[in-house]
Amino acid sequence: MLIGIISDSHDHHANVSRALEIFDKHQVEYVLHGGDIVSPFTARAFSALKAKFVAVFGNNDGEKLFLTSTVESFGGEIHAYCYKGEIAGKKVFMTHTPHDVEEVAASGMYDLVIYGHTHKQDIREVGKTLIVNPGESTDWITGQGHVVILNTDDMSYEIEEIN
Length: 163
What we know:
By secondary structure, this protein is of the alpha/beta class. It is built from four helices and eleven strands. Strands 4-3-2-1-10-11 form a six-stranded mixed β-sheet. Strands 5-6-7-9-8 form a five-stranded mixed β-sheet.
């Protein structure tokens, strides 16, 4: 199964639209957002996905009640601190900040650990756990937005530039 991974969209509507095009092109079945969508208006854009949408709150997400109701209105999920779940037989942990990432990955309890916040890509293995920070989907700090397409069958991934 293919899943799309995105983080730190920070109301950059043009890049969110391009990210959605990339996800649709790859026919991902899930999109996992590592936080900092920011506004409900940007969250609404994710309703166009043909995939299931799961997100966590980031430190810049405002108006959490409206953000939650917007995401839930199109069948998505948004979680307060972290998401713990199973997708395609893989155990997934997703949070926004990197604070617990090393410990969670080292525990060996998860196949995939996703985070954001730093706006810098970090894709590596710790034991059997793949850690993915796709970097920012905006282009405001690094100058280039990215998303990651992950194949859960073999945990291979492709980094896609947005701009």
